[in-house]
Amino acid sequence: MLNFSVVDRDGNDVQHLTLEKDPIAVVLPPSNRDMIFIRYDLSDVIVLKDGMWTWKWVGIEATNFYFPKNVDMIWINDRPIYIGEKGIRQHGGAMTLEYVPDEPIISKKVVWEDKKFEVGIKTLTDIDVFEFNQLGKRITFNIPKNNSLVTVIIPLELLWEPYDVYLNSNQTLNSEFYNNGTHTWLGFRPDTSGTINIIGTTVVPEFPLFVPLVIGISIVLMLQFRNKFNFH
């Protein structure tokens, strides 16, 4: 077992006794510490291929997973999950875990009238023929490689959710998995190369539907207030 250690939350060594070698047993004497970590490296469980780490994990106990600081999202069974600086907890079972450290972001600029927007695309493949169609409320680009993990980060001010995502105009791929208030993350894995179409509901420079509704309610309230306190 490589790099075996028993430490507290501050990384200080904790007194312990080990029994057997395979499997190893760890005996901990009574301690006033509220948390103790048993750390070791697992060999030959995570495979690196084409820049992506993959782990086909199987377990029967609840297990916590923590990731390097340069990983902010992962994929579990082809489902994207935004983790930020947090980890995940898996309650037993089986899963295919995938992640890309320092995943590159392809930045696509969109200019509409006097406004500039930036659409981010995280993927290990190339992106061809990126286009924003304001009238069609649509973002389009080509994926030249099949089975590629793709994450699209869309400014809500440019194209509002919810979205419909299509591969070659027929297969639905949509998977909205994170929204920070200004941007939405969409993740999908096309099983073939082709054209991706992301269709939104409201597009720049349209007003969201709730804006005229709020304006209308405000006018009604102002008229009622004026009539109530009309002294003439």
Describe the structure in brief.
The chain is mainly beta.
Record the SSE blueprint:
Elements: E1 2-8, E2 17-19, E3 25-27, E4 36-41, E5 47-49, E6 52-65, E7 73-76, E8 79-82, E9 88-99, E10 105-112, E11 115-122, E12 128-133, E13 138-143, E14 150-155, E15 164-167, E16 171-172, E17 176-179, E18 183-188, E19 194-199, H1 210-228
Antiparallel strand pairs: 1-4, 2-3, 5-6, 6-9, 7-8, 7-9, 10-11, 11-14, 12-13, 13-19, 14-18, 15-16, 15-19, 17-18
Q: Which secondary-structure class do the elements indicate?
A: mainly beta
What percent of residues are in strands? over 45%
Q: How many domains?
A: 3
Average of per-residue pLDDT values: 86
Overview of the molecule:
- This protein is mainly beta and 232 residues long.
- It folds into 3 domains: 1-42, no CATH class; 44-103, Sandwich (Immunoglobulin-like); 105-199, no CATH class.
- The protein is built from 1 helix and 19 strands.
- It has one helix spanning 210-228; strands at residues 2-8, 17-19, 25-27, 36-41, 47-49, 52-65, 73-76, 79-82, 88-99, 105-112, 115-122, 128-133, 138-143, 150-155, 164-167, 171-172, 176-179, 183-188, 194-199.
- Strands 5-6-9-7-8 form a 5-stranded antiparallel sheet, with no helix packed on it. It has a 5-stranded antiparallel sheet with strand order 10-11-14-18-17, with no helix packed on it.
- The longest helix is centred in the C-terminal third of the chain and has 19 residues, at 210-228.
- It is elongated.
- Residues 207-215 and 228-232 have low confidence and may be disordered.
